[in-house]
Structures are given as structure tokens and as C-alpha cells.
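Q: I have 299 residues here and want to know how they pack in 3D. Can you give me a structure?
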Amino acid sequence: MRPLHIALAALVAAVWGVNFVVIELGLDHFPPLLFSALRFLVAALPAVFFVGRPKVAWKWIVGVGLALGVAKFGLLFIGMDRGMGAGLSSLVLQVQAVFTALFAALALGERPGRTKLLGMAVALAGIGVAALDEGASGPVLAFVLVIAAAACWGVSNVLTRKAAPPDPLNFMVWVSTVPVLPLLGLSLLFEGWDRDRAALTGLDWSGAGTIVYVAWIATVFGFGAWGFLLSRYPASSVAPFTLLVPVFGMSSAALLLDESVSGLRWCAAALLVGGVALTSLAGTRRRAAPDPAAEPAPA
């Protein structure tokens, strides 16, 4: 990779890592489901008018929109709203690589090799250590919700693999149109009209700034730049940069939110990042396209 493109890949990882801090700040202004709906609304508009018509079948756009937008981000935002820290969330979500490999084996017939199985075991050991640390100091339910979000991310990765979008930015913008109404409906049902109205009528510059960041910078810019890199280099060259996301996530959370990082959490980070690296970069016994475990989505 050219040095400029290496810098771009690292910048995207930093944007996605810091995004967890921005999400936590945004949750001070909005209920989680409403915040997620606004994220996709702003990501889709006005971009949908400039990216052209969808380049894949609508069934894949709707499927990924529900799995990624409604399920994954809905669960992630609720988990963080219930006390899951930004840094730990950025780390735990990386177990999506394990779920992706498992779902790919079930749905696509890809049999993981020994290296990938080892990576999955190491990553799960990291999750166990993180759970032990969180169980001693934080809300377990919030931890479980983020794990469930990672599983939904795995489902969306496999669906994306099946869709094989030729233009990732076009695909992501159209996917962003799907979750808006379901998330708004869920927000009205579970968070209530009064709470949603209070958040919208009390919107200030800091709240608007969090929406702009998660929508335009983390989603539109992040996916656009990532698609640009994947169009020029093999996925095996680009994908390792996603391992920097929890590094930036944990570091920015410690610096900006004063989140402490215990010895157990550093141990969990080492195991999880190492396991994800083995899982994402190892081959499979049947492989017709880039490994879906190496396909990221913005946080």
C-alpha cells in the first residue's frame, strides 16, 4: 500500500474508534433508539440523491438494513445507554469476526481451517476475560447486549457477502434508508413520544454535532474511504487496519471520558485482537470471495 493510503486506512480506524466516544456523548442528548434512527436518517439524506440507483437487489439492502441498522446498532446503543463503556464496547464488538466465521460456515459452507479455529478460540477467551472484568465492575446486561450486537453484525456481514455490492458507498447509503422508520417506531413504542419530543425540541449544537459525526464522518466518509481502499488493494492488505479500531476506541475513551482500563481489560484486549487477527486473516477450505470476517462496518 502507498504511504498515503496507509495513512487513510489508519484515519478510518481512528474515526471509527473515536465514534464510540461520540456515541456515548450523543446518548446524553437522545434516547438510544431515536439516536440510532437519526444517525441513519442523516446518513441517508441527502446522500441518497447523489449516489445513484441501488446496484444490488433490494432484498439484500433490506436484509442488511434490518440486521445491521435495526438489530446491531439498536442493541449497541441500548447497551451503551445502560452502562457499557465506549472503550469496552469498541473492543467487544470485534468478536463479530467470530460470529461471521460461524455464520459463514453455516450459510455459505465455508469450513474454517485450524488457524481460524484457533483464532476463534483465542478471541472467545478474550471475551471471557472481558466478561469477568465487566462482571466485577459493570452491568452484565449491557455487556450481553453488545455481544448480541456483534452477533447481528456477523449476520449482516454474511448478507453483505451474498450481496457482493460493487459500490460499497452506494450500498451503505441505500442500506441507511431501511432502519429509519423501524427504529423510529421502536423508539415511540419503548422510549415514548414525550421522551423523543423532549430530545428533539431540546436539540443543541453539541447534540447536533454527535449526529453529524456518526452519520457523515463515521458512516459516509468512513465507508466511502474504506470502499476506495478495497477497490485498489486486496482485502488481506486493508482488513488488518480494523484491528486498530479498539485501540483508538479504548485510548480515546480513556483520554476524553476518563474511562479506566484495568489489567484484566488489557489482557482481554490482547486476546481478542490477536484472536480476531487470526480469524479474519486465515483462509477457509472453500473460498470464492474475500473473507466476510474481514468486512467491517462502522460503529
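Q: Anything worth noting?
A: The chain is about 75% helix and 0% strand. The chain has a mean pLDDT of 87.
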